[in-house]
Amino acid sequence: MQGFFGKTISPLGKASPKADIPAGVWLKCKGCEQTIAQSALDSNLQVCPVCGHHFPLTAGQRIALLSDEGSFQQLGEGLSSVDTLDFAHDNSYPRKLKETQAKTGLKDAVVCGCATLDGTPYALAVMDFRFFGASMGSVVGEEITRLTEEATRRHLPLVIVTASGGARMQEGALSLMQMAKTSGALMRHDEAGLPYIAILTHPTTGGVTASFASLGDVILAEPKALIGFAGPRVIKETTRSELPPGFQSAEFLLDHGLVDRVVPRAKLRAELAQLLVYLSPETTAGCTTAGRQA
């Protein structure tokens, strides 16, 4: 990840790239539709230098952004999903799992571990949308639960960075069970008087939104992130009503109380560092669980 925190480079022109330019050198921003250089994104935290559109980060990039260099120690990296339900009866799910693992270098859609940020220790889980749309299956639920329990045991603050299309359909009810399992672990973490900070990125939807993404003591979101349970089209067709402008955007949910702050990526590290210091067990020592909820 060399150069991840380098200086911002202005976009190198706005004209469409020539056909002989290698793929990945130029791309069109989904926010402003300007043609920008990949190098401009790489040196600007994957944020468009023209309009501020936030492109997705990999789990590795997110960990580099939110932790001290070399401090992250991964937990649970040996877990891998299995086709318990014999989905589709054609071995397609195990095959796609292996292909996605090879392509991303990940075992599944979340990376969990312990790290420090500006010297403050904490537990961190990061979801990676490249892996099956960061859908929540048994492994995702188990790893987040184990990390939460480890954070409780070590008396550490917990941070989960979400990005998910929801439950993993290939695992059926086993996927839906992870909502209750992760929520139960977070309840015990809270009862121990320990803070949990949720960082919602684009998109955070489905069962992830309906469980651990919405349970943070503090909930942060990146600008214009899509956050919701069902998609706007499904809701509109079901309710037969017009949805308000900006429905399910981070800014809309900030105005309506679900999100506490919308934080641009360039300020996210400093924001989280400040919250960890303020909410660390040492700072909150002596406060009861009831007092934290009041």
From TrEMBL:
**Reactions catalysed according to its record:** N(6)-carboxybiotinyl-L-lysyl-[protein] + acetyl-CoA = N(6)-biotinyl-L-lysyl-[protein] + malonyl-CoA
Cofactor descriptive note: Binds 1 zinc ion per subunit.
The residues that the entry says bind Zn(2+) are C29, C32, C48, C51
- Where can this protein be found? Cytoplasm
Q: Name one GO biological process term.
A: fatty acid biosynthetic process
What keywords is this UniProt entry annotated with?
Answer: ATP-binding, Cytoplasm, Fatty acid biosynthesis, Fatty acid metabolism, Ligase, Lipid biosynthesis, Lipid metabolism, Metal-binding, Nucleotide-binding, Transferase, Zinc, Zinc-finger
What's the Enzyme Commission number for this chain?
Answer: 2.1.3.15
The pathway to which it is assigned is:
Lipid metabolism; malonyl-CoA biosynthesis; malonyl-CoA from acetyl-CoA: step 1/1
Name the record gives this protein: Acetyl-coenzyme A carboxylase carboxyl transferase subunit beta
Gene it is expressed from: accD
